[in-house]
Amino acid sequence: MAKCCSFTASRNWCLRYSFTNSGLKSSTTDLGDGTVMHCWIPKTHKEKKPTLILIHGVGANAMWQWNEFITPLSSRFNLYVPDLLFFGESYTSRPERAESFQAQCVMRTMEAYGVKKMTVVGLSYGGFVGYSMAAQFPEAVEKVVLGCSGVSLEEKDMENGMFQVKSVEEAVSVLLPQTPEKLRQLMKLSFYKPTKNVPSCFLNDFIDAFFLHCWNKMAFCTQAPPWIKKLEKAGNLTQLTQEYFYKLLLPKKMVMCTVNYQERKELIETLHNNRKLSDLPKITQPTLILWGEYDQIFALELAHRLKRHLSENAQLVILKDAGHAINMEKPKELFKHLKSFLLDSRPHTKENSNGSHSQKLD
């Protein structure tokens, strides 16, 4: 029997309402090569406003990671909030997994909406994509904000003990949790002060609900297998897929969006494989680097390394008493620095004793 109530599904509904109430609408673009991109876009694009692209990281969809910022930012910018490939409602049948391909798909989506100039803000994995957009399309990307995004990492960093995990396989098991225990581990690594004693039923609900979301979306995509199309034709797709999910798949532990698990795993593996700082292009746009003081996903050293790589073109702000999830732990501080960097003309940082631009928030 299907569950009658889901906190996660209810929150998804509330987030969709919040985005819609802030002047955005859900839109899907078929790029014509087996790739479909979903994006929240302005109901009305106003030419007098600058355009801002918000790119999410690995984990839940874009709504969960950006909801706190939609209302205040939408009054100042034309906001575009895409789901990256294999997240939310975006997908591709193509084999590419590099962040450069994600960046190309986001840019092609923006071009389809007639957007020619933009500022890009990326959290974690979204920062990899945003950085690549700036490198590939310097004429279109005017400014860049990177939040806890380890674009400066190297493959050897794992062997040298920079991370809390010892291998890419272990990293995948944490970043794509399929059990409450792994989700607790992810929370511990993501937050400076993680919530303790979260009941397993809530964690299972989060994992299961996102699987079911992806499962239901499968039936409407052009790449869906024929047997799923038969369920759709049967009448009540939601009821049928819920019954199939809870009766057959859950007992087999097929959770946490198993539909896209392999593809997401490949995205993470591609980030790490053969990565060298010497291969990282130096973007020329003004760049703001934001980092949690106690980030355990991407160590703070990566922020300083990226600042050195970009030199005077970048500003580094370190958020005090914050971990990796700065959008959730320090939303007010994050918004303050976004607003200052993107809109204000006054200097954003001050020179510290060693000559690099960095600042901690009290």
Walk me through this protein's architecture.
There is one protein chain. The protein has 362 residues and is α/β, with parallel strands linked by helices. The chain starts with 6 loop residues before the first helix and ends in a 19-residue tail after the last helix. Helix 2 links the parallel strand 3 (51-55) and strand 4 (78-82). Strands 1, 2, 3, 4, 5, 6, 7, 8 and 9 form a 9-stranded mixed β-sheet that branches. The protein is globular, with a radius of gyration of 20 Å. The protein contains 14 helices and 9 strands. Helices cover 43% and strands 14% of the residues.
Gist of the model:
With 362 residues, the chain is of the alpha/beta class.
**Which sheet architecture does the biggest sheet show?**
9 strands, mixed
Beta-strand content estimate: 5-15%
Helix content range: 40-55%
User: For the residues shown, what is the average pLDDT?
Assistant: 84
Question: Span from first to last CA?
Answer: 50 Å
Poorly predicted regions: 211-229, 235-258, 345-362
Query: What's the total helix number?
Result: 14
Give the topology string: H per helix, E per strand: HEEEHEEHEHEHHHHHHHEHEHH
Structural class determined from secondary elements: alpha/beta
Radius of gyration, Cα only, in angstroms?
20 Å
Instruction: Assign an overall shape.
Output: globular
Number of strands: 9
Pfam family, one: Abhydrolase_1
Domain AB hydrolase-1: 50-331
Protein name: AB hydrolase-1 domain-containing protein
InterPro entries: AB_hydrolase_1 (IPR000073), AB_hydrolase_fold (IPR029058), Epox_hydrolase-like (IPR000639), Meta-cleavage_hydrolase (IPR052370)
